Amino acid sequence: NAGVTQTPKFQVLKTGQSMTLQCAQDMNHEYMSWYRQDPGMGLRLIHYSVGAGITDQGEVPNGYNVSRSTTEDFPLRLLSAAPSQTSVYFCASSYSSGSTDTQYFGPGTRLTVL
Amino acid sequence: AQSVTQPDIHITVSEGASLELRCNYSYGATPYLFWYVQSPGQGLQLLLKYFSGDTLVQGIKGFEAEFKRSQSSFNLRKPSVHWSDAAEYFCAVGLMNTGFQKLVFGTGTRLLVSP
Predict the structure, then answer these.
(1) Do B49 and A100 touch (CB under 8 A)?
(2) A45, B49: Cβ pair inside 8 Å?
(3) Would you call B102 and A45 a contact, using CB atoms and an 8 Å cutoff?
């Protein structure tokens, strides 16, 4: 049971490039989400999904796209990277969208946009 | 708007000494409250959570936290700190009735443990 996995661990992009951050979980969790962590700001919710085929925006969705074709995977796409997207990105999953459910976090992807 | 305040950016504690990390929240209803720990290069791990009932909550690794409604606080404590406790600690409030898991995080407190 690997839990929540994220790839890559590190990535450097140039402004305007696109990329996809991968997230997978093997716990059969319905709920998955993406956060970004910036110094002095805590974690902020980007997008979330309550099940396969269902996604919605969080607190800071601009510049990011998501899709959820399977229960296991929830990739985050940057279509045209900007320096403001330099951050550490965390994927999380939980059994359901209930606020009492424990969220399990992946190890993160550190992204630098030059 | 909902918010979580962790007033201490850094705290240094001697190994074996007691620890208290402060957390204050602003939320109109009874909150769901969480403490997470992030070790260097790792994701966040849940230490403990409070939803209702006993206001003193026990968590993993010997941590506990006390919910005080009158002070809007949820401070994290440990009676004797170990060097392996050095990490960043995040307090979060979970919002109710949003249809999704919305956690509002504090900015974190970095714990340093001196020998």
Answers:
(1) yes
(2) no
(3) yes
Per-residue confidence (pLDDT) for residue B41, from 0 to 100: 78
Between B92 and B97, the more confident residue is B92
Q: Rounded to whole angstroms, what are the CA distances from A32 to A90, B21, B69, B89, B106?
A: 11, 29, 30, 22, 21
B6 to chain A nearest CA, in Å?
A: 10
pLDDT, tens digit (0-9, with 9 covering 90-100), for B11-63: 999 999 999 999 999 887 778 899 999 988 788 899 999 988 889 999 999 99
Tokens at B115, concatenated: 């020998």
Which residue ranges in chain A fall short of pLDDT 70? 99
What are φ and ψ of residue B70, in 5° steps? Answer: -65, -25
- B67 close to B74: Cβ distance less than 8 angstroms: yes
By C-alpha distance, the chain A residue nearest B88 is A42
Tell the burial category of B9 from Cβ atoms under 10 Å away from its Cβ (0-12, 13-18, 19+): exposed
Query: Hey, CA dihedral for B105, B106, B107, B111, is it positive or negative?
Result: negative
Residues A99 and B96: beta-carbon distance below 8 Å: yes
